[in-house]
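Extended Data, record Nucleoporin Nup133/Nup155-like C-terminal domain-containing protein
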Amino acid sequence: MFAAKAPKARSSVVPKERTLERPTPKTSNNTSSRDKNSLSTTSFDSQELSWTSNHDSSDYSEFHGGNDIDDEHIYSKNDRTLVAYFGPLPREAEEALNNTDSYAHPMISKVDFDTGFGMVVSQTKCYIWAVQKETTYRSPPMCYTLPMPPNNNPTTETVPLLPVVTITKSDEPHYGILACSPDGTCWYWNNIDICFSNVDQHVDTKINISPKDYVSKVECAGPMGYFAATKFGNVYQVSVKKQYGTSTLALTQLNGKAGGAIASIFSMIGVVQGPDESQKLAAMTSGPRLQDQHGRWDLYVMTRRSLFKWHLYRSGECTLEVEVPLRDEIKDRILEDHTAVLPMGSDPCVRVLDIQYIKNGKLLEEDVRPEASPKLVVPQGGPGVFIVMPRSVILSSTLPDSKFEDLVPLKSDVIIGSGYEDWKQQHAQDLATSSELTIICKSSGRLGIHLQLDDKGHPLPLTATSPKNEKEEMTAQLQAKLEQAVFFSGKKHNPISFDLAHYDGGDLNQASLNVSREILNSHAPLLGAGRDVTTGLSVRFQRIKNIIDCIQDADMASRLAVDTKFQLCWSTEKLAAANEVWNQYQQRRGDVRDDKTLKENLDRVLHDAATKSLHKIGAHNTEDPLATFMKYHINELGALLFNLQTSVAKTQESHRAILIRDINKILIASLRSAWNFRRLNIGKYALQDRSTLEPWTGTENIIKALAAQYTATLSLCQAVPDQDGTSMDVDKDSSESLAPLERELRDQLCDLADFTLQAHSEHLQYLEGLPKSAENSIRISTTIAAYDIAKTTLLGPLGNLDKVQRAIQLAQKYKDFTTIVRLSSGDEEVISDYIVMYQQEFANALFQWYIDNDRYAKLLEQSDLHSDLFTNFIDSRDCNEVGWLHDIKIKRFGEGSRRLQEVAAKETYLDRRMTIASLSKLLFLAEGTRDGLVHEGTASYAARCNEELNTLTIQVDVANFWEVKVGAMVSIPDKAEAVLKKLGSPLLTEQNVLRKVVLDAIERLLERNVLSSEDLLDVLMLQQAWEINNMDVCGVALDICFQATDIPENRRPYVLQDIWRRVFIADKDAYWRLEDVSDSEARERLMASWMCRAYAVIYHADGHKDEKMLRPQEAKCTMPGSLFRERCLASSDSDCQDEAELKIQYENLIQDYERENNELDKRIREGQLLEKWQRVKMIVKEERAAAMNLGSQEATMEDVEMA
């Protein structure tokens, strides 16, 4: 019956090319005839279809030389089973079925391949037609109608009773028809050909049965005759006798107790009287004849509890061979093993043997039709087994070690009968490699079910690798069923149900992804082979779209993970995009078929890209790499698109523009197709959720490919016109004129910009969905920066190419407000509309654009119109240069003061910095007097303002002091050299690096540039003047050391060392001895020294701040080399980046400081520095006490005079 069988286990090798041979229908040579004098198996209007196999590489033996089945008629197929359509029922039978109530007036069907007839039987009629296993009927076959024997059975059965009809081969070469009504009336037509000429030409007889009994089975047992069995197990042999040229019927009840042979069966199993409910006869059939000396036949009897196999002998004896407890087997599966896929998964609404089927704790309604109970069918004696139910067929195997089970369920149709090849004489070891069953459906006609077995009689596995556990086996079953649903559920008039819920124990995510992957890469066995690339891509696209539809139809979409849904969508997108790549390629080849060079260039680029892609994934290259890629490697489509643009560079300049145009078409069409599919199926795939996987259209390779193609296209659009007026490098002899090509390239440029930004946004969205980590945060920041740059880079040039409107549309789509501002800056009304539309986002871009283009007047004008937006703008970014003005407008004086202080910190010009700092202090004072409250941090902020102003005032005073000292000189370097001479430091001439540092600081100060605090201290402490413009140098230096914020805390202790060390070595006359001079002279000399001035500052300070004072032994420089390196890097004259030069510089600076240390040690040893330091402290204290006494005496005198 079948030749187009389900393929064997999948092969892991790369599929080879196959050639499709189109089917050629073969019409039967026999003519249609309704001549009642003749009815044979070839007399009907039929078409026998012979097709060359176009399926996968599996090779199946022909079943009785049958012809291949047209793919159009295949309703379901997997690696194990195949369901095909073999044509409709006769019109008369179909009309009768459609016009009859199946419950009140049921009808049953039967197909007998041994005789070649099929029939549909009602209570009053029997419709008979010829059938052939190898024939598919395109139109309804012709049939004949026979009347059925009358039925006067008074039984009270709720099940409507039907006649039992069998076609028997009574005498050669004719077939006879035996019909028995439930009440025992038997009619027999000896010759089918003759009986149709006169339906009344039959012989009859009557079986006498009890009123409550009725005939339920009729079976032919070869030479043992024909047996009619009743409900209560009474079996009668019906023999056809020839007498005087006519046929008669003879009845003989089987010998034995009441019920004949069947009664003896019940007696042997312990039942004395008639059968109870569970032992009523359910089925009876004879088996194959065994070639032994006994000449025995097998009789199979099935009750509602068990199945019995008996040997019948000509002598009338019988022996029981086996009893199979079917009831217990099915009970355990259905009622106890709730995870069982079958038969629980088949959901039959019928009574299974003597158990009523319960699902989810609910008793289902029992079907009362005659064929509602399960029918066990074992074609050819096994090992294939079919259990036929009203709405489904369960497939299994008789092999003891086989766990195979499969299901062929119907949507809404009903099975009214079946047929199969009878048992044959065969040895036990000669197992068939396939089993087949024909079922007759009420609406769908004749269907065939094929079960493929291996050479040992086992069903073929569903996967190439054996499942390791039950979960994997159930997943394999689910995958096979999903694959069938994808390929066959959409077929018109397909009655097969592909409800995946029957296999809900499998992993749906894995199964769906496997099916998707196999379709995507042409590895699905049901795809077949031999199709051209265009047809193959179209078929695969339609099939892969069905995956999500089938899952939704089964109401199982909620079981799919978010990532799985995205992967299913992306796989479908890739096939949609691949369709466009291939179609555009073929179309472009057709357009340039007259230009050999253009065609060769296009072929070369596409084939180079395919070759590179195949090489990257390690795939085998072929003579046609593009076709190979399109058939088997669509999953790597992103690599192909990336490699397209890399192959364009090899093209001749004269054809470059046209080739770039063609590649643009392919890129744009493919990606547009993918994104359109995604947009239209957001709800179907639940794409509103966020996946943790990177979309294939948002990878870095796709972004690079689009960006590179944009750049190449832009270079063509912006090319300088040559002498012929051509603005691009096109072939002057080309039939394509310049203007259309340039317009097309500009349009493509807009699309490329759009797609590149779309890819950027997808990549960013993917990164934002990843788990939070420091590494991901860096990647997100980098991607955002690249995205922002890409917006301006891609959309900016469009305005210069007369694509302003499209540029604005894309800028709105991707929220590139900078481009919108730039393109609409002159239209105030449009700007106002955008502010209303986008609020803060657009306002931020607008204000920043004004700042970047120095349009501060317009900025302040907008700040008046949109005060709140401008306030948010300046608060969210570094806009202190203009923000403080707005703060004054809205009376945020404190915030304005803070902004001005930050502006002052960045200002390098001394006078301007001092002005800004003064304004900051004024705003601070205004904030303090506005509400009269002392806010947290006010005191510290006020101190910082004062410190900043004091430091700046000192620098101004020093600069002015030196300007007066050196007089009018022409150049700043000359003035700096003159100042350096006036400093008079005895060691500075030997300190080369330090001298350069100080000279540079003096130059900058004379240029009215701001010095760092450390540079300022170097300048102050290396000169000889105690006071500058009435400013005590020592006191100022100590204040700067402890108050300056630009001195790092790790260097502040060493800065204090520098101050005191230079105090101790500042005096030129330092080596006189105390014993060589008088006390008064010594006192006078010491009071004129730097250390006396410095100690006086410390002693007179409030609280005697001892932390500011260092003894001579503590003033030596001990700063580590690393801090010297930091100081050199921070120095204004250290702009070198070479580490070797930097090391030399700070090592030389350390040597300069060592000279100061050596000088300090020498003065301690030879200049009595420690003794002089003690005398200085005594002198300061004495002077302090004398001043206090004098002050008290003057106060007393004033009091006396007043009295």
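Summary. The CA atoms of residues 921 and 946 lie 8 Å apart.
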